[in-house]
Amino acid sequence: SALVIAAVFDRDVNCRRAASAAFQENVGRQGTFPHGIDILTAADYFAVGNRVNCYLTISVYIAGFPEYTQPMIDHLVNMKINHWDSVIRELSTKALHNITPQAPEYMANVVLPRLLPLSVGSDLHTRHGAILACAEITHALCKLAQENNRPVTYYFSEKSLEGLKQIHQELSSRQLYRGLGGELMRPAVCTLIEKLSLSKMPFRGDPIIGGWQWLINDSLRHLTLVSSAARQHIKESAVSALAALCNEFYINERGEADPALQDELVTQYVSELQNSEEMIRCGFSRALGALPRFLLKGRLQQVLEGLKKVTVISPEDVSFAESRRDALIAIAKVCQTVGVKGDGSQQEYVCRENVGQIYATLLTGVTDYTTDSRGDVGGWVREAAMTSLMEVTLLLVQNEAELIHANICKQIMCWLAQQSAEKIDKFRAHAGSVFLTLLHFDHPPVPHIPHREELERIFPRWEKETLNWNAASEAFPRITQLLGLPAYQYHVLLGLSVSVGGLTETTLRYSAQSLFDYMKKIQSDPSALEGFCETLLKVFEDNLRNDRVSVPLLTMLDQMLANGCFDMFTEQENPAFPVKLFTLCKEEIKRSKDIRKLRSSIGVFCGLIQFQGDMREKVFFQLFLLLCHPFPIIRKTTASQVYEMLLTYSDVVDPAIVEQAMAILSDTNWEAELPVVRERRNCLCDLLKVPRPQLVAK
């Protein structure tokens, strides 16, 4: 059995494989190992390579042979639940859960009494492993008793039941929930609470329930004080424990909650949502999302209002992206818990009265583009908002689809389309996946999806699983086709602007190429091109001085002008589009000190020179202003790009003076002192008959 134990339970993969090979050798040569061939088949060299598989699957199969059951259990209890590696401790306790049905009496009469004192012992690792082992074994024994139509306490002595209740009290009295040890103890005891609740232990009305509730609440409040690595684990185990505890011990025979308890719990949790600590908001948002239906009944509006406040960005909590994310996740969970009833009460169901408010809150999350030192933290909020929109929409579709209004569905699909055209692969992939899930959902179909037939042609059903949204080369050729659908044009163009004008090489290349392909296609259709240009100006206007969009948008416009995307207007006398574009660009860079923005605008101004009429003088005047910009890098860039512009569009200047103009541009040191530069610039103005810019007295 020592070789079998090493083959299945050793931490190191090489040792497991060596033990498996040695076992195979012995079986082949001696043939005296019980069930050797059967075990070898299950635990061969390759099978033991996966540690989780060893602990949770292979071990259960081998423990089914009586000769190995007890030695395997003893090894886990004596050597593995106190292991230094927490992953091994947790796997060992799950293995004990799975092996329990093979030896229930031994587990109940020998193992559990041995574990209970260890669970309140002095060694941290042993205590952690023993608490988790008690939780897993208890749950397995209770399940087994119920399957055999016996009382849940069938396998437990009074002493064992008392010992399980004592664990929390003992740890609490010795203050073992504090400090670094508390980071291990809190999730372990919360797991114990969850498993004892799921086991339907006869503790209803016992004072221990209050102690457990205190620990759950305290753990959620304690999230600020623990390391970021432990935070998620504590939050998840506390929320799981809360859901199980409520479902088992807070519901009466009529399926209702005690009104006083419900009032205290919900009011306390909602009030914690406005805590000044972000992590406490996170914890209690998720806790409200985990509450069962009988505790939300009559309190739904209070809960939704509380969660809505967490999602609102205010000056003092701009960086609280994680709490906004958790609140949006909780809103969808609450909706799924209470269910849908169109003409029901807004205190009990998702109904006509509150569905608009729920959607408004979720749609606000999709517009969160907050950034801080961690990067695009708003991305977490957008991702949660997209998932929650999908969950709530599918819930409504399957129950009362008439509650989904056409304008809501249009907003959802347009925002998803915009996110599917954006630059960060992970969020683009998530948006694309949600977009296709809603488009292809069939039981019944989602109503009011704009341009459904065209979308199903662009995204065929059979491609739903195979289309790789992460790959820019696959995503952008598809998503740019939505530019031809009026309902989606604005949002897709807004998303594309950020990608085409972005900094990531592959995203930039494929998004730009897809956009230029689309533009080529509509060159022969004046109404389509004019519609596109109007949308483009609207995107620019709506995002004026919003640097997240306007800076990459200028870069994109520069590329589009250089690629001849607007050639149709070059033959017209005084076309409106370039004039409006010029005005917006001028407004965008007014008083700006952003070098990237200023450099992008120079390219746009140079590109606008190709249009006829009064535009040219205005463009030259603007460029000559930039030739005397306070930043030397801007003066130098402007001179270089104007030089290239005169080479490219040779017809915009009288051929007799073009050489002279280019000589001034190339021979001048544009990084010299401003008075020197200004003199050379004024020579250019006189040469090209453009009014000299005048110095304004400050």
From TrEMBL:
Gene3D superfamilies: Leucine-rich Repeat Variant
Family: Belongs to the TBCD family.
Species for this entry: Illadopsis cleaveri (blackcap illadopsis)
Tubulin-folding cofactor D ARM repeats domain location: 2-37
Alphabetically ordered keywords of this record: Chaperone
One Pfam family this sequence matches: TFCD_C
Keyword Disulfide bond (UniProt): no
GO MF, one annotated term: GTPase activator activity
GO CC entries: lateral plasma membrane
Identification of the protein by name: Tubulin-specific chaperone D
Residues covered by the Tubulin-folding cofactor D C-terminal domain: 410-597
GO annotation terms (biological process): adherens junction assembly; bicellular tight junction assembly; microtubule cytoskeleton organization; post-chaperonin tubulin folding pathway; tubulin complex assembly
Domain of life where this protein originates: Eukaryota
